[in-house]
Design a protein that fits this description.
About 35% of the residues lie in helices and about 10% in strands. It is of the alpha/beta class. It has a four-stranded parallel beta sheet. The radius of gyration is 18 Å and the shape is globular.
């Protein structure tokens, strides 16, 4: 994660490495007609300039990527630590410019047809906010995120995580019990009931609205 400042791999080097991975995967499965390897990346979190450089370098090698993956959290568990934070429109709306920047960068510098995937996401980073990220109120963040993802044409959203930490879909973070948390049911119902069309709602992002 280049945005955290301790990764010395440049965007150019990472793209070169992905090209090597693509070639290795292709060679490994060249005799298997039914098995076609897919390469996804780069799993960046917030650094749009890094993403741009990665895509420009990757494009030199042709179509080596099957999807572009990014991460997103609204903030860390030390900052977003009240129930009000989880329903604050200003917090939820952090996703809007991020998805706008990601999609524009991918469409402009790589391929407007490629799948864009939120490859890791939840409410707060750092393992989630204790007693809140597994509660009912955390559902506002996830459902808003799924709705915005559909508006921006995001292909898929991968939740972090199924079990563990303070934001697991099941369990209480201690691996001692495995009962579903409210967000499990939110996403289960969304996946099974919501269709594949996103409808525009007038006034949906008006300033000062309440949730």
């Amino acid at each position: 994660d280049q945005s955290k400042g301790y990764n010395n791999v440049s965007a150019t080097q990472l793209a070169d490495d992905f090209n090597v991975l693509y070639k290795l995967a292709k060679d490994q499965f060249q005799n298997h007609q039914m098995l076609v390897p897919k390469v996804f990346g780069p799993d960046i979190a917030g650094n749009i300039e890094f993403l741009k450089s990665f895509l420009l370098q990757s494009k030199k090698y042709g179509s080596i990527l099957n999807g572009i993956t990014v991460h997103f959290y609204y903030g860390n568990d030390q900052v977003l630590n009240t129930t009000q934070d989880f329903v604050d429109a200003n917090v939820l709306d952090k996703l809007i410019p991020y998805l706008g920047n990601v999609t524009e960068t991918v469409w402009t510098y790589y391929n407007p047809e490629i799948a864009i995937i939120i490859g890791e996401t939840s409410s707060t980073s750092g393992g989630g906010t204790k007693n809140i990220s597994t509660s009912y109120v955390a559902g506002f963040m996830m459902l808003d995120k799924l709705a915005l993802a559909s508006i921006y044409g995001i292909y898929s959203v991968a939740r972090q995580e199924f079990c563990g930490g303070n934001y697991g879909l099941i369990g209480n973070g201690s691996y001692s019990e495995f009962l579903p948390n409210p967000n499990y049911w939110n996403q289960y119902l969304f996946k099974n009931l919501v269709g594949n069309k996103a409808l525009y709602v007038d006034g949906q992002r008006n300033y000062g609205r309440n949730i």
